[in-house]
């Protein structure tokens, strides 16, 4: 883990972030964590099937970057997508109902955990193939540049994905055409069971754009304020027409890669140490309390509110019916084109 | 309030597991994140964490119990201060009924007769796959695949295995379990997630005289490597006028697992089978998986070896021989019959065999043929059977358009038209991307009922 950009005491909590904003970040991060814990529970009960990748530990990344975004900005990510959807304002009920494969899910139950989308919130997926979302992100940015607006796209991907060939190809095109895309590498130190060190001898992902002319920086992903600040800088760069920017955000996933990962590649102590010493939610909690921006009771009230949002989402996702059987053959073509078989 | 802790599902295909070990005992205080127990799935031993905090009131399933169904209560948690008697009010424990792996007996291949004379008389190879009286042992497909690789790696030190998570993680689906220990990191190599890159690197290594086995975590990801597989591996021998080719194996699970959605569920059998220069294997049983993988590793051509996640955990009889291989292009007749021929391969075989059992109850005797290899195809065995039954149903998991069944139908029409009493029916997966929702996924997949229905159609019942 890289050094924090600012230690807990020197964050600009009081300077360019208001108490309300700080409370909002706490709220948003906690919502993701509790939502994911609930999803894990529902998976254990057999209500969620297939692959399910939890975002617990990485909450500050999406919450910090969403704080730097404006309406119209786009985002696209991998299968580890629940946090991104909640952070950009998608409805926890619709997300959970997709996880249980029900009619009221964002994809009518047809996509599942890894494949969810919301046009309204400019969330372009949920992609199951490692790194496929990277050129797609550049393409979204291409569309905004083409139309002449000042929107920016956040293309999120993992440290493992960063080694895929299409990432290099995309860097080249994005810089060549000055595309307004922020490449966000969520470096949680592992790609399934493979640590960064075992996958590359060039572990400083933020430098990988340099040979194409793309600037980048490493950011402490356990500090939501540092993420927000870096996000603002990257977004300003893109909006002003200077082309892409790379943020390598150092973070950590607490849970297994997916629900079926025995996680023998790291020690429990390593995980516990990160939870105890670097937890992003705890960090904001402390900022709120020591800065006297909130009382214990204020925070308890937030906890309670979130618990009820998550429970409601879970109930909703259980009660929503399975999709109608007619849905098997809908949405395959955009028009009424006849099927071939 | 006392809450029941239920047996968790720890993988997409897990339906039951073994409660290997309790790490907390009754009366212990538990905080969220503590490991409660170790649970063995068909793939691995997993740690089971507590979600809520409290006191472990009562253990309902003793450690060492196997066959514990997902969602059965395994323990009762009490809230702080709650009395242990609250635990007793929770329902009776689920007893563990030992459900071992379904074991499917392998029948010796049947002998078909080829007595007719003429230009296009099919001449099936009816020799047994291994000598009569060979001792057999029970193995899962997973173990058979690992043994095949280990035996070939011992036999030829130019054979090496490369792919994502094959070494230290012991394989994402535990197929390469133990290989790193035995062969070391020179020959069992973890790659970055760079399918196009490492597939191409494997082709180069094969050009250079090695015998790579390239594992794709699943064949869905091999689409990233399609160019190297088709343009480099399959075509080079031809383009170089026979000077150099790529003797290598591309292997991994193919087709649907359970609820993993549209991007992780495709069956590529027909795709690869359409490419000249490739050989394509799609085994069903453990014995075939072993004998065919050994042949694939020795084959001087690029071989696509399509496994199946659902079959990995199934057990079959496997010959207990030091070395045995099964040749390509030799189908296996699993069941003889005179009323209809069912042709399948891979996971399709489980539907075909189940359908045949069901049909027998209705007095319809199906002959069930496992093609085993999709390139080359054993047309002789199929055509000989058509001459006998006059009716054919093909069964595969892939999409219906341009399916392998379509191809078989056309060959049967050309070469056995006069023997057909009904049109050939191709039973396939539905013409849709795989949906995630449980009810829709079930509809999209092939079932034995689909096969039964097709057979009734071609037999006009
Ligand atoms: C092309 C491709 N190869 C392999 C996989 C299987 N797979 C899914 S996630 C994953 C690890 C990715 O790690 P990383 O990019 O670091 O993202 P993280 O899971 O840590 O968020 C692998 C190998 C896949 N989905 N797609
Ligand atoms: Mg990672």
TrEMBL record, chain A:
Protein name: Pyruvate dehydrogenase E1 component subunit alpha
Pfam family, one: E1_dh
One example GO MF annotation: pyruvate dehydrogenase (acetyl-transferring) activity
Superkingdom to which the source organism belongs: Bacteria
Function: The pyruvate dehydrogenase complex catalyzes the overall conversion of pyruvate to acetyl-CoA and CO(2). It contains multiple copies of three enzymatic components: pyruvate dehydrogenase (E1), dihydrolipoamide acetyltransferase (E2) and lipoamide dehydrogenase (E3).
Cofactors: thiamine diphosphate
Keywords recorded for this protein, A-Z: Oxidoreductase, Pyruvate, Thiamine pyrophosphate
Catalysed transformations (reactions): N(6)-[(R)-lipoyl]-L-lysyl-[protein] + pyruvate + H(+) = N(6)-[(R)-S(8)-acetyldihydrolipoyl]-L-lysyl-[protein] + CO2
Residue ranges of every copy of the Dehydrogenase E1 component domain listed in the record: 28-324
CDD domains listed in its UniProt record: TPP_E1_PDC_ADC_BCADC (cd02000)
Enzyme Commission number, as recorded: 1.2.4.1
GO terms classed as biological process: pyruvate decarboxylation to acetyl-CoA
Enzyme class: oxidoreductase
UniProtKB/TrEMBL annotation, chain B:
Origin superkingdom: Bacteria
InterPro entries: 2-oxoA_DH_lipoyl-BS, Biotin_lipoyl, PDHB_mito-type, Single_hybrid_motif, THDP-binding, Transketo_C/PFOR_II, Transketolase-like_Pyr-bd, Transketolase_C
Gene3D superfamilies: 2.40.50.100, 3.40.50.920, 3.40.50.970
Catalytic reaction annotation: N(6)-[(R)-lipoyl]-L-lysyl-[protein] + pyruvate + H(+) = N(6)-[(R)-S(8)-acetyldihydrolipoyl]-L-lysyl-[protein] + CO2
GO molecular function: pyruvate dehydrogenase (acetyl-transferring) activity
Lipoyl-binding domain mapped to chain residues: 2-78
PROSITE patterns per UniProt: BIOTINYL_LIPOYL (PS50968), LIPOYL (PS00189)
Renumbered residue ranges of the record's region Disordered: 82-137
Basic and acidic residues bias spans: 104-123
PANTHER family: DEHYDROGENASE RELATED, PYRUVATE DEHYDROGENASE E1 COMPONENT SUBUNIT BETA, MITOCHONDRIAL
Name of protein: Pyruvate dehydrogenase E1 component subunit beta
Organism: Thioclava dalianensis
Lineage of the organism: Bacteria, Pseudomonadati, Pseudomonadota, Alphaproteobacteria, Rhodobacterales
């Amino acid at each position: 883990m890289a050094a924090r950009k600012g230690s807990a005491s020197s964050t600009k909590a009081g300077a360019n972030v208001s108490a309300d904003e700080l409370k909002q970040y706490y709220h948003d991060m906690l919502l993701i964590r509790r939502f994911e814990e609930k999803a894990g529970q529902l998976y254990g009960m057999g209500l969620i099937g297939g692959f399910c990748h939890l975002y617990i530990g990485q909450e500050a990344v999406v919450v910090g970057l969403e704080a730097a975004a404006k309406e119209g900005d786009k985002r696209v990510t991998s299968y580890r997508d629940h946090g991104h959807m909640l952070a950009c304002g998608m409805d926890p009920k619709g997300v959970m109902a997709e996880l249980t494969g029900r009619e009221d899910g964002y994809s009518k139950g047809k996509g599942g955990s890894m494949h969810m989308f919301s046009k309204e919130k400019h969330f372009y997926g949920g992609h199951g193939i490692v790194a496929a979302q990277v050129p797609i992100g550049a393409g979204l940015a291409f569309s905004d540049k083409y139309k002449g607006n000042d929107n920016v796209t956040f293309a999120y991907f993992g440290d493992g994905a960063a080694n895929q060939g299409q990432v290099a190809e995309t860097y080249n095109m994005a810089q060549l055409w000055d595309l307004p895309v922020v490449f966000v590498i969520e470096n949680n130190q592992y790609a399934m069971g493979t640590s960064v060190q075992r996958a590359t001898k060039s572990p400083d992902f933020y430098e990988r754009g340099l040979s194409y002319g793309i600037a980048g920086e490493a950011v402490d992903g356990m500090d939501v304020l540092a993420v927000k600040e870096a996000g603002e800088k990257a977004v300003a760069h893109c909006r002003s027409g200077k082309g892409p920017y790379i943020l390598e955000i150092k973070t950590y996933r607490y849970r297994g890669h997916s629900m079926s990962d025995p996680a023998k590649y790291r020690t429990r102590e390593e995980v516990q140490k990160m939870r105890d010493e670097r937890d992003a939610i705890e960090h904001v909690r402390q900022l709120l309390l020591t800065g006297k921006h909130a009382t214990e009771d204020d925070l308890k009230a937030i906890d309670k509110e979130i618990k009820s949002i998550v429970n409601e989402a879970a109930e909703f996702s259980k009660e929503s019916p399975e999709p109608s059987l007619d849905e098997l053959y809908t949405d395959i073509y955009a028009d009424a084109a006849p099927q071939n078989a | 309030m006392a809450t029941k802790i239920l047996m968790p599902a720890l993988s997409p295909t897990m339906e039951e597991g073994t409660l290997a070990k309790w790490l907390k005992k009754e009366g212990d205080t538990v905080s969220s994140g503590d490991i409660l127990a170790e649970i063995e799935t068909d793939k691995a031993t997993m740690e089971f964490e507590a979600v809520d905090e409290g006191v472990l009131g009562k253990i309902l399933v003793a450690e060492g119990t196997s066959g514990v169904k997902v969602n059965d209560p395994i323990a009762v948690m009490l809230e702080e201060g709650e009395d242990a008697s609250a635990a007793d009010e929770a329902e009776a424990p689920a007893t563990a009924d030992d459900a071992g792996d379904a074991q499917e007996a392998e029948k010796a291949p049947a002998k078909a007769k080829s007595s007719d004379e003429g230009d296009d008389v099919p001449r099936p190879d009816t020799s047994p796959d291994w000598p009569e009286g060979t001792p057999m042992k029970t193995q899962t497909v997973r173990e058979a695949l690992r043994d095949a690789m280990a035996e070939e790696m011992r036999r030829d030190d130019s054979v090496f295995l490369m792919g994502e998570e094959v070494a230290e993680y012991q394989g994402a689906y535990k197929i390469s379990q133990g290989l790193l220990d035995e062969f070391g990191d020179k020959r069992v190599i973890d790659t970055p997630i760079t399918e196009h890159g490492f597939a191409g690197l494997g082709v180069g290594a094969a050009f250079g005289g090695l015998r790579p086995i390239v594992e794709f975590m699943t064949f869905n990801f091999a689409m990233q490597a399609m160019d190297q597989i088709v343009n480099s591996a399959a075509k080079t021998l031809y383009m170089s006028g026979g000077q150099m080719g790529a003797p290598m194996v591309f292997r991994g699970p193919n087709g649907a697992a359970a609820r993993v959605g549209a991007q992780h569920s495709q069956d590529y059998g027909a795709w690869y089978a359409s490419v000249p220069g490739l050989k394509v294997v799609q085994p069903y049983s453990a014995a075939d998986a072993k004998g065919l993988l050994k042949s694939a590793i020795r084959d001087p051509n690029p071989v696509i070896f399509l496994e199946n996640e659902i079959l990995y955990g199934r057990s079959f009889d496997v010959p207990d021989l030091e070395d045995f291989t099964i040749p390509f292009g030799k189908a296996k007749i699993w069941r003889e019959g005179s009323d209809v021929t069912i042709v399948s391969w891979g996971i399709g075989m489980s539907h075909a065999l189940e359908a045949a059992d069901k049909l027998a109850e209705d007095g319809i005797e199906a002959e069930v043929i496992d093609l085993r290899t999709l390139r080359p195809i054993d047309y002789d065995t199929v055509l000989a059977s058509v001459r006998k039954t006059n009716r054919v149903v093909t069964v595969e998991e892939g999409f219906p358009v341009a399916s392998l069944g379509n191809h078989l139908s056309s060959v049967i029409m050309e070469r056995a038209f006069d023997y057909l009493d009904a049109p050939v029916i191709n039973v396939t997966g539905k013409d849709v991307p795989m949906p995630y929702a449980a009810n829709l996924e079930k509809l999209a997949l092939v079932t034995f009922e689909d096969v039964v229905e097709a057979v009734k159609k071609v037999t006009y019942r």
